[in-house]
Structure formats: structure tokens, C-alpha cells
Amino acid sequence: MPRIVFNGTDLDFLFDHWIWLFRGFSSYAKPKSPSVIGEGRISRMGCKEMKKKIIGAAVAAAAMFGTISAQAASLSIIPSGATVVLSGFDLAISGLGNGSTVQLFTNGSSGGLILSGAPTDVTFEYLGSETGALNRAVENENGDELFRNYDPDGAFLPGTASSIGDTAVVNIASGGYVPFKFDAAHQIPSPPVCALGLCLPNPPTYVVETATNGGDIEGLLAIALFQESSTSVIALLNDGTGIYDYDDFALRISVTAIPLPPAVLLFGGALIGLGWLTRRRKLAA
Q1: Cβ atoms of 264 and 61 closer than 8 Å
Q2: pLDDT at 137
Q3: Which residues are 234's β-sheet partners?
Q4: Three-state secondary structure call for residue 158
Q5: Sequence ranges of the domains in the chain
Q6: How far apart are CA 185 and CA 170, in angstroms?
Q7: Which of 198, 240, 252, 256 could link 220 by a cystine bridge, Cβ 3.0 to 4.6 Å?
């Protein structure tokens, strides 16, 4: 029968040691004289062997825990050196408000939002938009649109507006700058088309500028970042329309913290069992 291996650790090996631990608890109730396990007690030699097995289980469990912990994903901000205090900010759902200080990234800035511990799933959550411009967020790993703040009439990228609270989960293959950008489309009125004294309206044109995390930020666009925790950051857009309130588009970007693996429970149980056996051994001596 093939053995079960997880992250290079033999789970059958761990299970065998766990069984030995419980067998030791049940058979060591009255250690009055040396005997064998089959007669209801455990010999001193058996006790030593059991200690070795418990220690082996603890070491293997600790190794598994260390391997999994090393893969835990996190988010951090490489600052540009500039900050801004929010004023006129209207997106309360983000948890930010007037007076909050955020890291600022503009045309020519360096730095941005960094992902460590990839590959991992990154969750993007739409927190809203307060602007007249047509803005959207795009994930650059696969080039997919994440969210948009408008329900256009077909003149510019037809689609449906996103709802606050919408989420998108993207698997990011490698660490570094989180691959996302903001697009801001500014409508430019077009003069009417006139001929023979008759003028017809001309569809508007759009100028699109882009602000890329860790990359180029065009025109008057700006990205602002706020670190909520080691696994969650809020990203804000200023779309260059002349009002610097940084609520033109907002995202929450997060990674999931890895819970304690079952190996930790085994590790703790093995240490407790070792201590219990040591104490019983001293009392019986």
C-alpha cells in the first residue's frame, strides 16, 4: 500500500507515532514492575523506545509546520516617500475617512504594493467609486477586468457596472508587485458635424489614462495605498479630474492567512505526552 506524503513529510509515520502515544497512555497506568505491553504494562526499555518515537513525531510535525508557515502569503507597501491626508473622502465602506494618512504614488514615483509567499490566491473587493469619470480596475496577470464603476451606453467598453462588495479571486503565480492597474476614461466632447446648414451631434471620444501598481502612472492619475494588516491593503485611485479626494475608485486587496495545520496539534500532543511519561517514570522510580 502506498504511503501518504504531504510537503515531504510521511503522514503514515506521524500516524504510527500518534498510535504509540495513546497505546502508552493506556498501558502505563500501573508501572509497578517491568513487563511487556501485551500484559497491560510497559517495560522500561519500551518506555525509552516510546520516548524516541514521540520525539520523532514532534520533530516531524515541527518540520511540517515550518514548511507550511514558510509559504504563508503577505502584503506590504514599498513607500514612494510621499503621503497624503485624506480630505473630502466619501467611501465609508472602506474603513477610511477624512484624516486618514495613505501612501501616495504619482507620475514618476517608485514603489507600490508587494506580494510575498506566492503562488497564492489574491482577493480583490470593490469598495465603490465617487466620480463622474469612467473608471475600472484590471488584473494584469491575465489581463482580466476586475470591476468598473459605470454602466456605459456602448460608446466605451460596453458592460455592466460592478456592485459594492463584489469580489474577484485571482491566483498570482509569483511574488513582487501585485499585478493590477486602474484605467480612467475621460470623455472629450466632439464638435457637431455640420453640412448644408444641418448639424448632427458627434459621439464623444474618450481619452484613457492608466495607473499601474509598481509601474507607470500617467497624467494626473495617482494611486494611494493604506495597510490594514499584513494580509490586507486598500488601494485608492485619484482619476485626475481635478478633485484630489482619492475616492474615485477603491479596492480592498487581501490574501488569506493560512490556519494552523493539523501537524501543530500533533506537535503539541507529542510534547505533552512526553512530559507526562517523564513524570510517571520519575514517580515509579
Answers
A1: yes
A2: 93
A3: 226, 252
A4: coil
A5: 5-71+260-284, 74-255
A6: 24
A7: 240
Report the C-alpha gap between 42 and 273 in whole angstroms. 15
* Alpha carbon distance 50, 56 (integer Å): 10
- With CA atoms as reference, report the closest residue to 182 among 214, 152, 138, 224: 138
Q: Is the peptide bond before 119 cis (omega within 30 degrees of 0)?
A: yes
* Identity of the amino acid at 243: I
Residue 252 to residue 239: CA distance in whole angstroms: 18
Give CA–CA dist 123/142, Å, rounded: 15
**102, 246 Cβ separation under 8 angstroms:** yes
Burial class of residue 110, CB neighbours in 10 A (0-12, 13-18, 19+): exposed
- Sequence-distant (6+) residues with CB within 8 A of 284 are 31, 32
> What are the Cα distances from residue 10, in Å, to 3, 54, 56?
7, 15, 12
Global confidence as pTM: 0.67
Q: What is the pLDDT of residues 118-141, one digit of tens each?
A: 999 999 999 999 887 889 999 987
Distance CA 122, CA 176 (A): 13
